[in-house]
Amino acid sequence: MDRLKEIDENYIVKNLYHLDEPNKIFLGNKEERLCRFCGKNSNETTFKKTAHAIPEFVENYKLFSFYECDTCNENFSKNLENHMSNFMNLHHSLSQVKGKRGIPSYKIGNNKSRLDWNNEGLSIMQYEEDNFNIIEQDEENKTIKIQGKRATYIPIAVYKCLTKMALSIMDEDEIVNFQNTINWINEADHSKSSYQIGNLKAIFTFITSRKSTHTVCFLLKRRKNNKNKVPYMMFFLSYSNFNFQIHIPMCELDKHLFNETVMIYGIPNVFEFDDEEFDGQTRTVLDLSSTEKVKDEIVEIYLSYESSKLSEN
């Protein structure tokens, strides 16, 4: 596979975590607490909460960190994770991704139409009075189009959320290269920033034909003898039916690339490793640069089925 060859010529894999391990994994030193996001130690702040290195809503029940204080943990949950959760709400509902409160239900705003999972499978309730079609069924091709509105989110906050995950699994000796990045994700007001970053593109893959049974995340670090102009580090996250890939912005070691066109290679998912012709997926480049709130954005998801029971009221 050409992509794998190009990636191997430019990067080495770092900090690979398969989150189906039987035991919990804790990053950092429990006895000498120092928050890597605000720089405060246990005399200046508290570390009472168990901090997930990557959020629980991407099915992380195993990987935790000792170097995230309670204040930063709460701020990230409110200012970053909520936005990514809102962005993925309909996807997570359909793919049965469990969060803290189980599989999230999906509802169209204040309307009655909704979808839920129960003991019989996926239940989709669509009411004519809501004047919004959640579902459209194609009986001939045995497909269903699920249409919904995303909850309100800010695109750049989604990118910051992914960046925070990358910084959480990064080695301590690499963090020094990303101090501006840390300052950036800590900004509570996403519409005002001291940093000019440019376009923030994420590669999003929706695997429509299969579902991964565990969460995987890792970093790619640029080789010293790399062949192309590539960012110093990239982050890859895979869970359920979804993959996200980003480059980590504002690295001190990328200053020579600030005015250059850099290469960002799409990392194959686990099923492509087994089958180079695998096509049961859609791969999209998301522009997550905007600092403006996005409301009522329509998202469409197509599902195939063998049999279904549709209820319309």
From TrEMBL:
InterPro entries found in the cross-reference section: HNH_5
Source species, domain of life: Bacteria
Pfam entry (one): HNH_5
Chain ranges of the HNH endonuclease domain: 35-86
UniProt protein name: HNH endonuclease 5 domain-containing protein
Native species: Chryseobacterium taklimakanense
Lineage start: Bacteria, Pseudomonadati, Bacteroidota, Flavobacteriia, Flavobacteriales
